[in-house]
Amino acid sequence: QVQFVESGGGLVQPGGSLSLSCAASGSIPRIYSMGWYRQAPGKQRELVAVIANNVGSSTNYADSVKGRFTISRDSAKSTVYLQMNSLKPEDTAVYYCNLRSIYPKTDFWGQGTQVTVAS
Fold first, then answer.
1. Are 79 and 71 in contact (CB under 8 A)?
2. What's residue 29's pLDDT?
3. Scanning 15, 65, 86, 104, which has the fewest C-beta atoms within 10 Å of its C-beta?
């Protein structure tokens, strides 16, 4: 079992910033990547950002957040962070932490944290 502790969500005005963190613990398998997904009401869950657990820590971002969000990790702590700047109302969603294992290729999910961008 993998457990997650997510923190950092909340209410922020447009143009503001929030920082999310997600710490994984328990029986953590070999990690392929960690990242963040989000799901807005009535929409499908979508990728926000992901960071690979390799030497280069390669990253991938949704086009809608490029230049505004930054993902980072602390591999020693099995923790992933998401710095969100210049937030827009359309960023409002429940943000889910994701851990993808190498073998078997399995996705583990956090419980989600609400981010609301409103004036």
1. no
2. 86
3. 104
Where helices occur in 1-119 by DSSP H, the ranges are none
21 vs 27: CA distance, rounded Å = 19
Q: Is the pLDDT of residue 76 over 90?
A: no
Helix (H, G, I), strand (E, B) or coil at 58: coil
Two tokens, residue 42:
């009535």
Which two three-digit tokens encode residue 17?
Answer: 């910033």
Is beta strand 113-117 parallel, antiparallel or unpaired with respect to 93-101?
antiparallel
Structure token digits, residue 103: 């073998």
Task: Find the distance separating the first CA and the last CA of the chain, reported in whole Å.
Answer: 39
Do the bridges between strand 10-12 and strand 31-39 make them parallel or antiparallel, or are there none, so unpaired? unpaired
Quick check: 75 pLDDT over 90? Answer: no
Residues 23-55 pLDDT 10s: 999 988 888 999 999 999 999 999 999 999 888
